[in-house]
Structure formats: C-alpha cells, structure tokens
Fold this protein.
Amino acid sequence: MNNGAVLFFGILLTLASSFWGLLLAPQLQIGRAQPAVLEATGEIYPSPRAGLAQQGAEIYRAQGCAECHTRQVRQTGVTFELWLGDAGTNKTELAATMAGLKIPDPEKFITQAPVKLLGSLTMTEASSMAAQLTNGEAKAQAVLATLGPDIARGWGKRATVTQDYLYDYPVQLGSLRVGPDLANYGARAVPAALVLQHLYAPQSTMPKSMMPPYRYLFNKRKLIEGEKPGLGALPANAEPGYEITPRPEAEALLAYLMSLKADAPLAEAPVPAPPVKATPPAPAPAP
Amino acid sequence: MKKPHKQNPSQQSAPIGKPAEQAKASSVAVKEVGDEPVVSRNSVPVLLVALLGALVYWGNMHIVEHGGQLDARVHGPYLNWTQIEGLQPKSEEQELIARGFRVYNKPTCVACHQNDGNGSVAQNAPPLVRSEWVLEKDPSRIIRIVLHGLSGPINVLGKEYGAVAMLGWKDTLTDQEIADVLTYIRNTWGNKAPPVKAEQVKRIRDETKDHSGYMTVPDLEKVVLQK
C-alpha cells in the first residue's frame, strides 16, 4: 500500500461526487417543495389525500399495482393551434381575412365557433394570425397544445411533474406498462361500480385485459333462492347466484384510484385551454 | 516522467529459492520462470485520457442543454424557465400588450421614443412615460397623433418640444396594430391607462379621413374628450 492516500482520496471523491449528484443536488432542488397556488383558480395544489384514499395507496402498494401500471405521463413538446373563439358580427370581413390566411372553408368555421382553425403552428405564427383575425367583436386566439404519444392516448393533458407526487410516499411511478397509465385515472370519470367490477373480474369489463383478478378484496356470499344482491354489491351478473361486496381494502383502493388526478394547470406544466362557448347569461328572475 | 518505483531489493534478485535448494531440485524438471513479475508505473494511455475528457465534456454539455439550468420548476420537454414562462396563459389585456410590444419594436415607435419610452432629446422626441397626452383616459387625441403624425410645438410634462415632426402611421399600421401599440405604451414603464380598442381607432380614422398633413396641437385641442 504505497499509494494508500491516493487510493483513499480517489474513492472518497468518486463516492462524494455520486452522493452530490444523486442525493444532495436533488434534495436541494426539490427537497423543500411546497404545494403551489394555482394561478387560474387560486386553489392550492396538491392537497393531501383523504384518509380512505391514503389507505388505498397502501393497498395499491401491497397488491403491486405499480408493477404493471405506471403513473407518469410523458410529453414530447408543445405546438400551437389557432382557434376562433367568437365570430362577432362582421362575418364577411372575417371570412375575407381568413381566406387571406389560407384557412380552408371560412364560412363553415364561422358558423361553428368556437372552433379550431389550424394546428401545428409556432407560437409566433399562431399569435400573429390571431391578431389579424381579432378585429371588432371577432376573437381569435393562439392556444397551446401538448404533444406526445401518452397525450395522444388520452392518458393526460400534460406531462406529470414533481408537484403531482408531493404527498406520495413512496412515489409509485412504475416502470412497466402492461396496463394503461393511471396518472389521471380519477380524471377519466370511470363509474365506481365499473372500477370494482374490473378489480373483481378484469376480463368482464376489458375482454383482452391481462390483469389478474383481485377476488380476495371482495366478500362472496351464496344467495338463497330468489334473493337479490344487497346495496353496495356488484351487479347480479357479476357472478350469478352470489352476492359480491367489496371489502374495506377494495373500497380504499377505489378511493385511491379515484384520487389520481394530474391535470391541474401548474405554471411549470401548462395545460391546453381552448376557448369554450360562452353560455348566455341566465334571464333575470321576474320581480 | 516520474521516478521509477522504488523496489524491494529482494525482488530485484531474480532466481527463485536459494542456490542450495536449486541444486537439490536439479533432478526435478523445474520450468524456468525468469524474473519475478514487478508492478511498474506505466503512464495512463493518452487515448484513455482523451476519451475520459470527451466523456466529461459530453456530460457537461448534456446537463447544460437538458438540465433546465438546474431549475426545479423545469421538466422535460421544456428546456428552461423562460420558455415555460412564454407559454403561460395570458389575460386579454396582457395579450394586447404583448402584441403591442411587437408593433412598437417593428421598428416603428422605438426608433425615436426609445426602448424605455423616455424619448430622445437629439431626435426631439418627447417621452411617453407619464406623458399627459399618452395617459388621457379618452384616447381620441393620441389615436389622432399616431394616425396622422404630429407637427410641433407641443408641451409634454412642462417641457416645450419645438420642431417635433412625427410621421403618420395610417397607411402602415392597421386599426388593430394601432390599438395594440397604444395599449402597450399606456400600460408599460409604469404607465396605467385603459386599453385602446380597434373600433375606437377605426371610428377616428373614418372621422379624420379628410385631414391632410400632420396633426398640430391646436387641431388636437379642438377634440372634445369624454370624461
């Protein structure tokens, strides 16, 4: 050991640099992350999960759901779309301007407002076109659109970011996609009964699903002749002649799945917001 | 180069074992092994150093390009915070101001009134910042100035500007562009005044279409302002 000191400091430096790069730097960056206040609504995001959903996170972990389901939406880029929000009153002039911008079928679009006129534009193109179309009461705007295979599959509106996992411990991102991504499962408005049915017998709701059944999360009771399944049980056709009721574990898992939403318009992950049709003001109540 | 490694004297004497033992084992076929292997200090190959250097360079450049400047708010596919900031949804007025900024720097106004809106003494351009002409609640006068230009003298913020000659923009800029740029100058550099609408510009353009030449201060003072 003639070079003990060199060896010692070499190993120390190597370990210290990896400690710095993999542990300390991320900890300094996001270790003290706090819930953000959403610019649009003033809401605080994220909020801690409700108690039942928090228990469900443990069930999700215990059943190994993260082995086959990821919880991360990837995004490859952004593009801009030109939307006509309101056609206004001077429709002939608007149609002429639209024709000048080489937009096909201006008359058809004008009747359909709010409608997307063009896609795949750069920000400058879209906003300059929107500026030309916005005149008088006509309102056009450049709208952000997110790109990526996950977004095309309808798994989310934007990439998932650190903020989405702030109250998760451990963060169950998952790395394999045997089943669909669940980052926005709660936002997809799947009826609760269907989710339970899927947990009990996956192939009954998704014929080609590779998901194993989780029957042990349910109680099964034989019905006597002519008896109907009680309240809160799976529908009668789930397993004829039996009453299938979710156990507390299944209820908790359901609550957790319904709490999975990563679609808040965060500053670091802008969400597309196309114009919506203005609802006419409600008529004033008669005095 | 460094000094050769200081070796153990016993290692330097090559033959294995003692002479007596050698003689005793002479009947056994002993393979000649030569000198005992010695650890020497060869220099690291230049190619390896170059390769490591290239790797470090590539790693650094990768972090510079994709690291989001080590900002915790930046996630892929975005490259830096400036890019994300540009994508934030804007209110209608912010959008007008952003468009007005582009018109101002086309270059049109910026040539004389400068980036900071303080004007230029050399070009006899009055300031736009805090100017009572710019911040008038009713924009009828300022719209006329932009449409037809202005011939001095004009008093801005208590200072007399004599030989002012501002070009008219009625043939160059559209109603919307004039509205945008006016909204911009009325809401930047600390200015605060209501936005200007394209319809207002269009109305005044129609009203003054018979006006020839520049506007002058007496022309403008004839305009009745709405409270």
